[in-house]
Design the sequence.
């Protein structure tokens, strides 16, 4: 497709110079006049009833304006999950709960003239608790006699399985074929249990929100959000402020990865600002981000497969218990994805059953996090398949290549399971996974290193691989829209609801518009995510922006093109059919070769003839969710004396359809891969016996820096997704799914020992080497 | 208390609380290109160059920075006249969310002052105090390499 001039090119990210020069502004950078500051105070107990709150000592302190808590604020239940409406997550959260359910649960908030005054006063509030029995073990949440965490009217707004009396925040069940019959036909049964852990997104910018007023008295909320439209809806619901009085503006965002798909701070600043008619700022500290914001859901994944000696899997059973923590944000949907994004990979298994339960515990709250359940599921799946391929004496790469889903094929799973609803059937129209495997294996030196156990002193080398697929938006749920107008110099304003959180979506959406109109990207002036100015979009999540919002932009730009051609037909006195767009903002008459510039056409429409604005709007919802595919390869050295794992080289080979911008695509893969590596090896939440996180700072919660990184290699195996804008699928999430299992498989290759639970710390590796249970 | 600060070559008289850290004072006075990521001196997003040395401004009392030269990313180049490091970060795709970028660029700036032609290992060591969650560091290192090449060929 060499006829494309903007798409597929490494166009510079449209906002990057302002970011590099420090002129771009994030939420906390917006100056508002004379703001009040909001600071929270939290539960020190994992599970307790609040008996009384004495805020008098705090109220009498200098600079304190108000103290909000359950005794003096609305208590309507809602979900913090920023999802489509009604949300598939349970309404189990109040702004300020009367009962607290984890160490870090919000008890109240102090509004003061300065942050320092608010913090001092927050420490002066006296809260009397009656402690209740905590529940730290998700595998015991459903036991009879386990403390019930949500017995106060929590409910699910959609008809989805929700049984708070059993601590079940979500349940996903589906099956096809006859699993028992399948197991009976097998030559051997492989059954293992894998566990994934609590981790944090660690977006560099902590959550922040500022509420202020415009000259008409409307509330304007600047927020570090991935979901401005959901944020407006939820704020209105919980505060009672009419939605038409609220404008949510998303400035530059310092990373999200799902953490900002939660409505955390917005309702509080709105409530306080509305009450006092003054600007209110709130900004979480890094410690608060760890303890009170959202995490990745830990999951126990049990897989049982029946396998024939030739490798045919006759039946597969997956049984998951997901710890959603104290509240059910994204509980059902993350759990769904652990099955729906994983099980289609081997689509030829005739008998499949999936049982998943998301359960409450008195621990931090899970939420959306890049990979969204697929990460947890693929940790188990890839190790499991590694085990099977070894048992039947087949190479892992060859085994995957033999069985993975292919172009023209489908999976029963697609229609069996969606996000809180039934799924949507689809046929895979683009898949280059085999190519990803071949090129990745070549790059890592698979045939040279696999199973060779090359040693150097106490260090032994191994290589491992993993594969995964994801989706591109939620079919028939996610919606994006765009509007566009033409200016008299031939430039275009493009307004999108899509939310650039650092991903580069402003850039790739501009590229799609520029390509369609055959103008340089500089002629597209993009403005994104302002609920007053831009059309609706569900937000930056579910790997949807390029595919869903990109299609909306493509359609919108197509309408603009048609209007330009019809205006040009009048201007040039030629039938529209004889005109086409030339490069660089011109319309050309095919017959005569005559040209008219966009500027001339725009001026003709605006000032001369039948005066009108060339403008259009378009929306898009996907009927399907084409999957990107990726293969990951890890080369590790393991120290048999200490259990230390040294990651030497890591390869990510991905198929995202046509990359709209290859450099930004690589950047997404590299970032997700590094995040996955760090997730696999070092990141973890440590809790004391009372359920308090003990390592809530970057000192003690280790994320990878430049000295930790291995040699990294990214490969793009380009395909053409016919349903995507210019052939594109998604890329943002999938890169995080493979590192943990690829590294675990490499550790097995080196040591012959399998680590079933994350993270892969030296202690666990050493224990496995020494055979300690 | 009051103090004189030299911010990006500009002389400023600011009043501030005795226990205020430099990060807060800079941000309160409009230097919002200096970001707060952790407030604990680990992530490096608040780094500035103080009398020639890279420091995490959240760990420096404003009082101790009085009469000193403070350089933020706005002081090395502007959107109309960017520094080669700023252009290199843009061109290599090293800027994603951009939250770590100003401080990352300053860390690279300090490195290239001392070591105009750094090895990859030297680049990694110089940037180790600056965390990034978006890029996986690959393109950041590439950016520093590119800037070093261009800057030494100017000389």
Sequence:
């Amino acid at each position: 497709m060499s006829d494309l001039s903007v798409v597929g090119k490494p166009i510079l990210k449209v906002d990057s110079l302002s970011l590099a020069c420090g002129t771009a502004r994030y939420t906390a950078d917006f100056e508002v006049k004379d703001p009040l500051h909001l600071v929270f105070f939290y539960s020190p107990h994992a599970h307790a009833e609040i008996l009384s709150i004495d805020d008098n000592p705090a109220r009498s302190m200098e600079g304190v304006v108000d103290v909000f808590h359950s005794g003096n604020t609305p208590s309507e239940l809602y979900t913090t999950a920023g999802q489509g409406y009604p949300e598939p997550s349970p309404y189990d959260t109040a702004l300020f709960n009367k009962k607290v359910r984890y160490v870090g649960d919000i008890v109240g908030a102090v509004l003061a003239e300065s942050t320092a005054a608010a913090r001092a006063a927050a420490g002066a509030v006296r809260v009397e608790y009656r402690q209740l029995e905590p529940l730290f073990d998700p595998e015991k949440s459903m036991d009879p006699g386990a403390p019930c965490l949500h017995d106060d009217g929590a409910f699910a707004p959609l008809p989805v399985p929700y049984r708070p009396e059993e601590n079940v925040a979500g349940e996903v069940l589906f099956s096809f074929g006859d699993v028992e019959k399948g197991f009976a036909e097998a030559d051997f049964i492989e059954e293992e249990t894998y566990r994934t852990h609590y981790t944090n997104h660690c977006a560099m910018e902590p959550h922040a929100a500022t509420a202020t007023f415009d000259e008409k008295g409307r509330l304007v909320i600047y927020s570090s959000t991935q979901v401005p439209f959901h944020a407006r809806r939820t704020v209105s619901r919980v505060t009672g402020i009419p939605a038409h009085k609220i404008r949510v503006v998303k400035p530059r965002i310092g990373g999200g990865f799902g953490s900002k798909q939660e409505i955390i701070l917005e309702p509080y600043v709105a409530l306080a600002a509305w009450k006092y008619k003054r600007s209110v700022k709130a900004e979480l500290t890094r410690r608060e981000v760890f303890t009170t914001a959202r995490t990745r859901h830990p999951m126990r994944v049990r897989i049982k497969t029946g396998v024939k000696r030739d490798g045919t899997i006759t039946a597969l059973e997956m049984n998951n218990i997901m710890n959603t923590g104290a509240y059910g944000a994204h509980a059902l949907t993350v759990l769904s994805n652990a099955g729906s994004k994983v099980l289609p990979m081997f689509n030829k298994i005739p008998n499949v059953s999936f049982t998943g339960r998301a359960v409450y515990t008195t621990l931090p709250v899970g939420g959306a996090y890049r990979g969204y359940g697929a990460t947890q599921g693929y940790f188990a799946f890839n190790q499991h398949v590694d085990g099977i391929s070894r048992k039947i004496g087949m190479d892992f790469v060859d085994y995957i290549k033999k069985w993975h889903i292919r172009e023209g094929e489908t999976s029963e799973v697609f229609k069996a399971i969606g996000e809180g609803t039934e799924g949507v059937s689809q046929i895979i129209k683009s898949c280059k996974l085999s190519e990803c495997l071949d090129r990745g294996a070549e790059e890592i030196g698979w045939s040279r290193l696999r199973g060779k156990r090359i040693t150097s002193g106490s260090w032994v080398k191994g290589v491992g691989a993993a594969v995964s697929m994801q989706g591109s938006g939620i079919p028939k749920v996610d919606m994006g829209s765009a509007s566009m107008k033409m200016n008299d110099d031939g430039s275009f304003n493009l307004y999108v609801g899509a939310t650039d959180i650092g991903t580069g979506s402003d850039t790739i959406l501009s590229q799609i518009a520029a390509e369609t109109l055959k103008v340089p990207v500089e002629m597209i002036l993009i403005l994104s995510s302002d609920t007053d100015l831009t059309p609706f979009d569900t937000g930056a999540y579910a790997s949807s922006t390029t595919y869903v919002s990109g299609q909306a932009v493509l359609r919108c730009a197509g309408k603009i093109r048609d209007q330009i051609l019809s205006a040009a037909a009048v201007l040039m006195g030629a039938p529209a059919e004889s005109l086409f767009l030339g490069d660089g903002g011109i319309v050309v008459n095919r017959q005569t070769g005559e040209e008219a510039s966009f500027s001339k056409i725009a001026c003709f429409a605006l000032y001369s003839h039948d005066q009108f604005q060339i403008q259009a709007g378009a929306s898009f919802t996907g009927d399907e969710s084409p999957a990107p595919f990726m293969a990951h390869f890890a080369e590790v050295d393991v120290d048999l004396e200490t259990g230390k794992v040294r990651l030497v080289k890591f390869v990510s080979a991905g198929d995202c359809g046509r990359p709209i911008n290859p450099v930004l695509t690589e950047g997404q893969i590299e970032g997700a891969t590094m995040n996955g590596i760090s997730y696999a090896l070092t990141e973890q939440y440590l809790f004391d016996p009372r359920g308090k996180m003990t390592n809530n700072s970057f000192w003690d919660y280790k994320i990878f820096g430049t000295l930790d990184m291995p040699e990294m290699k990214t490969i793009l195996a380009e395909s053409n997704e016919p349903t995507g804008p210019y052939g594109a699928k998604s890329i943002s999430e999938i890169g995080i799914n493979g590192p943990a299992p690829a590294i675990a498989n490499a550790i097995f290759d080196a040591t012959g020992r399998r680590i079933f639970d994350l993270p892969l710390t030296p202690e666990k590796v050493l224990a496995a080497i020494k055979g300690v249970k | 208390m009051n103090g004189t600060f030299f911010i990006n070559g500009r002389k400023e008289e600011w009043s501030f609380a005795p226990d205020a850290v430099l990060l807060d004072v800079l941000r309160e006075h409009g230097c919002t290109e200096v970001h707060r990521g952790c407030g604990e001196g680990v992530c490096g997003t608040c780094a500035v160059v103080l009398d020639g040395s890279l420091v995490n401004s959240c760990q420096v009392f404003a009082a101790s920075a009085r009469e000193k030269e403070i350089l933020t990313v706005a002081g090395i180049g502007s959107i109309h006249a960017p520094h080669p490091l700023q252009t290199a970060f843009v061109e290599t795709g090293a800027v994603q969310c951009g939250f770590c970028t100003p401080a990352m660029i300053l860390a690279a700036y300090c490195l290239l002052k001392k070591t105009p032609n750094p090895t990859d290992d030297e680049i990694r060591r110089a940037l180790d105090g600056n965390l990034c969650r978006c890029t996986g560091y690959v393109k950041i290192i590439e950016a520093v390499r590119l800037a070093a090449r261009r800057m030494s060929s100017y000389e």
Remarks:
- The first helix of chain A runs from residue 16 to 21.
